[in-house]
Design goal:
38% of the residues lie in helices and 27% in strands. By secondary structure, it is an alpha+beta fold. The chain has two domains: 103 residues, no CATH class; 108 residues, Sandwich (Immunoglobulin-like), CATH 2.60.40. Strand 4 and strand 5 form a beta hairpin.
């Protein structure tokens, strides 16, 4: 039979002996006659003694108040240290996972300061309106500060327009700007700078509207 199989049984006998000590008023042994030394008690409490050795001392410890008190205190410290070690390991694992996630997240949202010059041609039918699906491929913007020239659909009027980058859930804009559209040779164009320096790569929507009107949404990929 293994040591681990015997240990719970031996500890139960210790507990039974302790009850006897308490109920009968204790077993003083001021001279510490026949007492094991502290290393032996520590080995018993730490489960580092074979069953045969435990049996040599169990009766004495169960009938000697000083030994039993010393054993109980050592055992309490052993259990506490083991629990503290388990908690330290668990805390280290959790911290390592958090640190990995934080580094990944930081990398995804790192500030990109590059200035990019982009032409966004929205004359083709890739607009999203209401429940209509997208038309042809999305726009492509670069992370950083994008100086964007928009080519508006034919018939678009001149004036001030708002531009916003939104997530697929249509929440609060991640970034926004405004610019003034002009008409030249029957083409409506507008230049605007969009701050995409903190936006993670992915799929988004760019919303465009003249002031005071409804938004038109276009799919965009931020690289």
């Amino acid at each position: 039979m293994s040591d681990r199989a015997l240990m719970p049984r031996e500890e139960a006998r210790f507990l039974k002996a302790a009850q006897s000590v308490l109920l009968q008023g204790g077993f003083p042994n001021p001279e510490r006659t026949g007492c094991p030394d502290k290393p032996i008690l520590k080995a018993i409490a730490s489960r580092e003694v074979s069953p045969a050795k435990v049996m040599d001392w169990i009766e004495h410890v169960g009938m000697c108040s000083p030994c039993f008190r010393e054993y109980t205190e050592i055992r309490r410290q052993v259990v506490w240290r083991r629990r503290a070690a388990y908690l330290s390991i668990a805390a280290a694992v959790i911290f390592s996972l958090f640190l990995g996630w934080w580094r990944w997240r930081s990398g995804q949202q790192a500030v990109i300061t590059a200035h990019n010059h982009i032409v966004a041609d929205i004359r083709s039918p890739l607009v999203l309106r209401g429940d209509q699906g997208p038309g042809k491929g999305p726009l492509v913007f670069q992370r950083g500060f994008d100086d964007v020239t928009f080519y508006f659909p034919e018939g678009s009027r001149a004036g001030t327009y708002e531009v916003a980058i939104l997530g697929q859930e249509f929440g609060e804009p991640l970034t926004r700007a405004s610019g003034k559209a002009t008409i030249e040779s029957r083409m409506t164009t507008m230049n605007v700078t969009l701050d995409l320096s903190r936006i993670a790569p992915g799929y988004y929507l760019v919303g465009i509207r003249p002031l005071g009107t409804d938004w038109s949404y276009y799919p965009v990929i931020v690289k």
